[in-house]
Amino acid sequence: MSLFAGSIEDDMKKAAKAIQNKDYTTALKVYQMLEETGYASVGLYQNMAICQSALQQEINALVSVEKGLLYKPEDYELLKIRENILKDHPEIDAHLQSSGFIKLWKKFASLLLPTGWSVLSLIVLIVVGMITIKLYPEWGQNSKLKLFGGILGAIFILFVITGIYRNHQLYHSNTAIVASKQTLLLLGPDKQSPILDTLIAGNKVYKTDHIGQWWNVQTAFGERGWIQSENAVMIR
To answer: Which residue has the higher pLDDT, 103 or 157?
Structure first.
């Protein structure tokens, strides 16, 4: 249940009005409550990042930006907020920026939610099945028909892979952002374990395993170790 009675749209409008009045604390509470109900959108994370930046919660703002970029990787407002955060915090590694190919792939995958890719895959599969049943006698003799079938098959595989990737990206991603300043990367899941490194808030890590409240993570530079789960936030 959201903070205010009524629809999500009503809550978003009330929160937007709070932002106009520079009441960022109230607006952020509304957005966080909406997120807790399972609602997610580019607009929600844009506004959360704006409020968090205004309240000088830069790391939380960065988390909101990364969550929003899952839904729209090239969103101008989110990228601008991230650029400003990175400009104010040069200690955060530039690896937050993706390569050209990865950007293109993420942009393509973000066109639809996992359900949309599943529906498209099913449609292509049905089309291939209908064509195969209708034209089966000619299938092995007509090279153009075989080429057409191969193209449809490749499209089907592409849609399936994209749907799987999109589902993992939104709901099962192991990417997290270090949220606590001077987070210790330890050799083992124990506070008495030798210190390998000190992680700076805002940098990304990739969770590979966990034991209780401890995460085994890998940094962008390939260094592996353990951190307490309370020191990082998953991007989902």
So the answer is: 157
